[in-house]
Amino acid sequence: MSDFAAATNLMRAALKRAGAAQNGHGETQPQAVATPPAPTASREEMSAHFVRELKELGGKAVVVDSPQAAIDAIVEFARVFEVKSAAIGEGARTDLQPLSEALGRNGVAVFSVAQAPEEKRAELRARVASADAGVVEADFGVAASGTLVFVPTPARPRSLSLVPPVNIVLLRTDYLLPNLAALMSALGVDAMRDNPVAFVTGPSRTADIEKRLVRGVHGPKTLYAVLVRSGRD
Amino acid sequence: MMRPPEAESFFADSRKAVGDTDLRRKLEGAVGRHLEQVEIVAGAFPQYEQEKVAARRIKEEAISRLPELLEQLRRNLEAKGARVFFAGDAAEARNYIVDLGRKNAVKLAVKGKSMATEEIELNHALQGAGIEVVETDLGEYIVQLRGERPSHIITPAIHLSKEDVGKLFEQKLAAPYTNVPEELTVVARARLREKFLAADMGVVGANFAVAETGSIVLVENEGNGRLTTSLPEVVVAVMGIEKVIPRASDLSHFMEILGRTATGQKLTTYVNFVNGVRRAGELDGPRELHVVILDNGRSQMLADPVLREALYCLRCGACLNVCPVFRRIGGHAYGTTYPGPIGSIISPSLVHEGQAGHLAFASTLCGACKDICPVKIDIPRILLHLRWRATEGDIAVKWPQAAHRVRTGAKLTARLFAAPSLMRALSRAASVLLRPFARDGYLSWLPPPFNGWTQSRDFPLFGGTGNRVAGAKSAPVEAGNTGSGPTGSRDAGQRHDPEAHETEQAHQ
Question: A163-172 in b/e burial notation, b at 16+ Cβ within 10 A?
Fold first, then answer.
């Protein structure tokens, strides 16, 4: 086994041997990189852009006015896409209990995966693996690319947006950001240190056969985002 | 095991590949679709150039601060319960992971796409220890079923048609034959889902490792990387030392360029942070997380001020797609883990030390790779540097007469150039003597030692006007869907007329 400290010391020596910036070719002193300023887009413009991007990627998206309208849209989606069972966790920003109950009343077997004690993990994982859909709230959205950002915790584990073939996602429009640079500051270093964060841009896809696009390889094949307008300004 | 790349086998394999019109048609089709998409997506992003510069600067900083960043990365990984192992070479990395499998009684390991694990030939070692290994990236799964190596960094099965894949699945998976990519993908998804749910170990690479947060970041489209790091109890990430970046916020710059050049997407479908082990009450995530930091020749590249730039590579694969050599011979002929222009500059240090030096000569130096590189690596400059090192005997090229020939040739040429009257007289004599053998002002055959030239192209007659368009020897394959080149590329290979391309190469 190589010793880590010895290895990094060898690297130091190698760097010193090569000398800093001696190749006269673009090597620069370390410097902070300025992030481009966020375009000043209104929330409505960002929502519209997000929807357009996600649809272009083969996802489905809709903007609604209230939490109740979001529940109605999701219940209707579950009916049309024959979602019979769904895994759900706690919301990132919203109480998902009313949604869970509404789905239950409409014939969807909803079960919660928030908090999975070690002795119940195997059973819960098997249920998630056979569920038709995962229901989860995104922490943020990025308008420029139609990206959903998840900060999974034990209360809303990552499997929800990963394992079932259908992923239903709630997103409050006041957590929409114009671009990735803005996302980085909103998300913050702590979230990126402590959680299995995922940026999800559209349904799972591949182009491994002749560079021809196919959707739904290992992750969800169907992605439905419901953007909820919020009173917060 | 892979045989070491040698000049003689490279000549034989690349000659064979050039004659394989079927392979060339598949390559041109896939590469054309890729470049077309890249041009559309990158062209529609006004900040593209600015983000490339930003990403380049971050890589420059990261490589110049490598030792301290790796130390910081290790501290932050360990603080989150991960275990860090530094592997000086491929064998150390392999042995560590095989041991890990044995200790945890692993029967089945699933793998995300990772060039680093190809580099250390991990699958072989795990299988030797009785562990079943399944590649889960669709392209990697396909080449694994065929018992092949990937022929491209990001599109491993680029050398195969949908019909090839249909036949493969029929034979190996007893699936009914189809040539529809959607249906083939459904077959693979069902097979691999079973494997994901049963696997005890997940092995992935790393696109980035953030020193500030101790995060391994995976960028992928299929969701297999996310499943591989979320479902198995033991997860191992293998990363080259050069994957470390200073800050989490740096990621946005890489994200803005990587999808655009690698696959022509605004953003790759999944950007996953692997952050430590499963927390109390959490449904998913590994019980054990191991990070193997691999040197395997990289720190030697650090010591070479020219070659060091190759460590900025993001493994996006774009330089392969624009390379006129790659597009004619495909990935397998290179005989290395990393094919194409980037492979030719890193293989001599990384994979088979001192045995891939001849690949630096397998380039026209047209510069298309440099133009498309998202971190602006000056690949032609490094190729020239490696040629120089090879002729100086710095790299033990397994082709010693090459260095000798180049040197002797250069000396003779220098003498000729120093004596213009002698040169004129010689070329006039050659012109007269050779005229009877020429056709349309070109010679199809020259005696040794000049036959190297006429093996691949015709030689213009000395003093002749040579009004033929090109010296290309064989009729080029139908260009078909060649696609158009990236913005501003000066790669002649992008043109629809391959004849014109040959001319440009020949005159360089």
Answer: bbbbbbbbbb
